Amino acid sequence: MSAQTMSNIAQLNSKQSDFWQQLDQTLDWESVSDEQVFNTVNTILKDVKKRGDAAVVEYTNKFDRVAIKAFSELEIPQSRLDESLNKIPASHREALEKSAARVRAYAEHQKMESWSYTEDDGTLLGQQVTPMDRAGLYVPGGKAAYPSSVIMNAIPAKVAGVPELIMVVPTPDGEVNDLVFAAAAIAGVDRVFAIGGAQAVAALAYGTETIPKVDKIVGPGNIYVATAKRMVFGAAGIDMIAGPSEICIVCDAKTNPDWIAMDLFSQAEHDEDAQSILVCPDAAYIEQVKASIDKLIKEMPRAEIIKKSLNDRGVLIEVADLDEAIEVANYIAPEHLELSIDNAREWSKKIRHAGAIFIGRYTAEALGDYCAGPNHVLPTSRTARFSSPLGVYDFQKRSSLIDCSAEGASELAKTASTLAHGEGLTAHARSAEYRIKD
Predict the structure, then answer these.
(1) Are 372 and 101 in contact (CB under 8 A)?
(2) Would you say the C-alpha torsion 318, 319, 320, 326 has a positive or negative sign?
(3) Known catalytic residue: 336?
(4) Catalytic pick from 246, 270, 318, 336?
(5) Taking the domain 35-238, which CATH number applies?
(6) How far is CA 336 from CA 98, 151, 269, 333, 421, in A?
């Protein structure tokens, strides 16, 4: 791998007159699926909604290249999950259990509790927090399987108090991933079905003879899965429509450039559309990072994916100072933001938009992916401007509580009546007025 080839990674300088315009173009990613994908998914959703189990079996046989005769063959018994848990290497089991324990401990802090207060006249107002009845977890299957995603999606649901968590995971060509099954056992998943694709999303959203309808569908998937999730929204809730993974690193030029290069690789190796960004006020250091990229790329098993990702979507940004670096980072609103700088905790208080903030030189983004504790399901494609990481709160609902005393109802009714008449809604006004004391 020559330095010349990797020098294709884009470079921007905030002094350029069209800097922000160029940055916009760099960040732009079109998440809309094409018409062919939309039509295929639409057909599958309608068919599963109409024919249930039979349609799911047919699509599973077709897309996963298996020969299932009855839907019952697609449900994975708990004993099979336990078998996987006992089969995997002890070091893998220990790592999964440690990760699960840390994610659970963090999630416990996120639980929303019900609250209320009582006014002087005896009227009670408050909020009642309840879990969803049932959640569905989509997990990619086959070789590209991520047991960490099982833990990150399942445990917050369980901490929230969701009674039933249903996991769907395809097994293309009958290929089972024992780590995924083991993670399901550790995370407390209730039922598992060996199905995937748009047909699995449809089964969760609409229900079939065997799979009960869920209240929310979470978890990553390919373009067909993402499109299906978007289209079933309303029949069920969804976590988010995730774009490619991304990292933005703000560095003050004092971190080992090899560390920074590898942190950029850690996102680039996901897929060719992933985005890795370095923001730094030191031009000489940026050149050092480029040299590290050229040196270390040779060691990477996924070198071709990393090269394409960095050359197509990567960018090295030179800024005037750290204040401007923070301004740029907030504009990018990245999924993962590393602050590899002195006094990183203080600087982190200036961050307004980021899915997760990794504070200090030692906090590699990869730690958050697996075992730090916070969730790795994060908003992408600048959506951190208005959305948050997956958490316990995504599986809880809030109901307003209003309990009026006779005196309170009488006073409130006077205000309500006036406003209702003003809106021309007579029945509203009369309803309130019946409660006014003589």
Answers:
(1) no
(2) negative
(3) yes
(4) 336
(5) 3.40.50.1980
(6) 22, 19, 15, 9, 51
- The average pLDDT across 38-53 equals 97
**Structure pTM?**
0.92
Q: How far is CA 28 from CA 21, 22, 31, in A?
A: 11, 10, 10
Tens of pLDDT, residue by residue over 361-377, are 999 999 999 999 999 99
Per-residue model confidence as pLDDT tens digits over 228-261 = 999 999 999 999 988 889 999 999 999 999 999 9
Average the pLDDT over 309-322 and give the result: 97
Distance from C-alpha of 221 to C-alpha of 235, rounded to nearest angstrom:
19
- The verdict on whether 335 is a catalytic residue reads yes
Catalytic residue (one of 246, 270, 318, 335): 335
What 398-401 contacts at long range (C-beta under 8 Å, 24+ apart), as own/partner pairs, is 398/112, 398/127, 398/128, 398/129, 399/127, 399/128, 399/129, 399/130, 400/125, 400/126, 400/127, 400/128, 401/116, 401/124, 401/125, 401/126, 401/127, 401/128
Is the CB of residue 41 less than 8 Å from the CB of residue 228? yes
Mean pLDDT over all residues of the chain?
95
Q: Where in the chain is the domain with CATH 3.40.50.1980?
A: 3-30+243-372, 35-238
**Dist CA 307 CA 294 (whole Å):** 10
Pick the CATH number of 3-30+243-372 from 1.10.10.10, 3.40.50.1980, 1.20.1270.10, 3.40.50.1400: 3.40.50.1980
